Amino acid sequence: MYNERTICDKRCTCILKHSLILSFTPLQPAGVGPEGITVIASKNLVIVADEVDSRDDKIRSSLTIYQLDTHASTVPEYPTLMSGLRDGEDTYIPFSALSGLAAAAPYGRNATSRSMDMENILYTIEDSFYKKNRILTIDTSSYPAMITDEKRIVDATNVLMDCLTEFNSNAATTTTDDAAAVERQANINGVDITSVINDDKTVNIDPEGIATSNDGSDGFWIVSEGRGTIGDEDRPFETPNLLLKTNSQAEITECILLPQDDSSSWPDQLRFGFEGVATTEDNSHIVITVQRPWGDETNPRIAIYDTINSSWSYLFYPLDEVESQNGGWVGLSDIAPLGSDGNEFLILERDNQGGPDAAIKRIYKIDLGDYSYENGDIVGKTLFKDLIKEGDLTKMNGSIIEKVEGLAVTQSGKMWIATDNDGVDDSSGEQVLLNVGTYNDGGTGSGSGTDDVDDASSSSSSSSSGNAVSFEERTIVLIAIISSLSAIFAAFTDN
Predict the structure, then answer these.
(1) 120 and 213 share a domain?
(2) Which domain holds residue 486?
(3) pLDDT tens profile 147-178
C-alpha cells in the first residue's frame, strides 16, 4: 500500500501534496525559503517554517499553518485566480508579474446588451519581467476567477519603433533655448530600440496600467513605466514613459510621449513613472497616475492627455504621510473610472512595505471636475476604503502583500484589486485577485466615502460553495501565517 506524503518544495515556496501516481493539488502560498515541515494529523494541520528574513525586501521569516478541510461544501480561500486552457490546446495559460487591472464594462458607462455580457470580464497586463508582454483576459463569473485568453502586445506596423526613433532624434538635437531641457537631453544617450522591440515584433516594455478604449475599437490604452532616472549613474535612463493605444488584437496603433523640450512642464524622468491609466467615456481624456514625485516636487502627478488637442496637463495628488514602522515611501498605483461624466475616479495609494510593516493600502476618490484646472493645482481626495483596516488584505490570515497594483470597478459596481508578485523575484510568488466590495451598492449614483462600500459578501471566498467540489477533499485551506513561535508551541500542546 502506498501512502500519500506531504513535501516542501523550497524553490517554489509552496506546499504540494503527491501520491505515487503524482496527482497534483492546488499550490498554496508559503513564506520564502520553506525549510522545515511538520504534520499534526489529529488536527488536520500542516506547519511550515519559512527561513528567509529580509526586511529590506519586505520578506519576514514566518510559520505558516494550513488546515486540510475534508468538507466539499467549504469554499477554499486559495487560489483566487487560476489558468484556463489555451484555445484549441491542452496547455494552460501561465501567468505571473501581473500589474494593472481594467473592467471590460467599466462602472457608470451607458449600459448596452454587450456591456452587460462583459460584466464579469476583467483585463490585466504583464509587466517587464518576461520581456514579451501580454494582455490577459479574466473571467470572474465563477470562483476562483479564470484566465481565459492571452494576447501578445506587438508592434506589427512599426508604430512604437517610429515613436522611439523620433524620441532618439529629438534627444540628439537641440531645438530649444531651455537650458534645463538641453541639460536633460545631454543625459539621455538614446533608447536601444532593439532591446524594446523583439525580432518577432513582440515588445519588451514595462506595462503598469491598462484601460479599455471607448471608441468602438474594442482596443486598449496602456501605460509603460520608463526605465531609469535621468542623471542617475546607478539607474541610468533607458526608456521613456509611454502612452500606447492598441487594437483588440493588442497591435500598437498609437504611441504618445511626454514633452521633451520644455523643462517647465515636466521635470527629469524618475524611474517611478507611469503606473495606472483610465479613460473618460468619450475618450477625450486619458488620465494617468505617476507613482512618485519627480525632481523637487513633493507630490506625484496625475497626468492628463487631451486626445482632441493632443496636449498634456497635470495636477498634483496629495500623498498620505509615511506611517509604516519601517519607514519607506508612499506612492500611487492604479486608477479606475467612475461614471459617464468622466470626472470621478478611484485611485490606489500604497506604501512600499509588506507583512507586519505594511500600513497604507488605500483606495481614494478624486474628482477632476470639468478639466478646467490650472497645471500644478492640487486635486482633493476622499478616503473610500482602507484595505488593511477593513480586512480585505488580512481576511485570509496571510502576510500582507506589498504590491497592490491593480484596481477595477465593473458596471454593476464590483470593485476588484490585484497584486503583483514580481515574477517571484524576492517574493513567495503569491498573487491574489480579490473582490473588495461594491461601489455605491451597485447603483447609478456616485456618492463618496466608505459608506458607499457594501462590505457584505466582499470576499472572493463568499462565492457559491458549489465551485469548491472540484478541489475535493485534498484542498488545503490557508488559515494563518504567524511570525511568533508561541503559536506553534500552542499547537503542539493541544496535540
Answers:
(1) yes
(2) 5-75+466-494
(3) 999 999 999 999 999 999 999 998 877 656 66
Residue 171 corresponds to which amino acid? A
Listing from the earlier edge strand, what are the strands of the sheet with 14-18? 5-9, 14-18, 28-29
Arithmetic mean of pLDDT, 183-201:
85
Residue 275 CB partners (closer than 8 Å, separation 6+): 100, 208, 209, 223, 225, 288, 289, 290, 291, 331, 332, 333, 334, 405
Q: Are strands 145-152 and 81-83 parallel, antiparallel or unpaired?
A: parallel
Q: Cell triple for residue 347?
A: 485611485
Question: What one-character-per-residue DSSP string does 426-444 give?
Answer: TS-----EEEEEEBGGG-S
Note whether 43 and 106 are same-domain residues: no
Claim to verify: residue 56 and residue 98 sit in the same structural domain:
no
**Can you tell me which residue has the cell 538635437?**
173
pTM of structure? 0.83
Q: Three-state SS for 487?
A: helix
The pLDDT value given to residue 302? 98
Number of domains in the chain: 2
- For 55, the 3-state DSSP assignment is helix
Residue with cell 537641440: 174
- Domain-embedded: residue 54: yes
Beta pairing class for 62-68 and 81-83: unpaired
pLDDT at 397: 84
Regarding whether 129 and 55 lie in a shared domain, the answer is: no
Whole-angstrom Cα distance, residue 104 to residue 211? 8
Cell representation of residue 165: 526613433
Residues in the chain: 495
State residue 362 phi and psi, 5-degree precision: -130, 155
User: Which residue, chain included where needed, has cell 451597485?
Assistant: 442
